[in-house]
Amino acid sequence: MLSDIKILDLSTLLPGPYASMMLADLGAKVLRVESPTRVDLVREMSPQVGASSAAHQYLNRSKESIALDLKQPEAIEIIKTLIKEYDVVLEQFRPGVMDRLGIGYEALKAVNPKIIYCAITGYGQTGPYKNRAGHDLNYLAIAGISSYSKRKEQSPIPQGIQIADVAGGSLHGVIGILTALHHRQRTGEGQMIDISMTDCAFALNAMSGAGTLAGDEIPTAESQLLNGGTFYDYYQTSDGRYLSVGSLEPKFFTGLCQLLDLEHLLPLASKSSAQQQIKDSFTHAFKQKTYQQWQAIFIKLDLCVEPVLNLKEASEHPQIVARELIVDVPHPKTGMQKQLACPIKFSAYQAEYQQAGVELGVDGKQVLSELGLSNSRITALEKNGVVTF
Question: Which is one Pfam family of this protein (predicted)?
Answer without folding.
Answer: CoA_transf_3
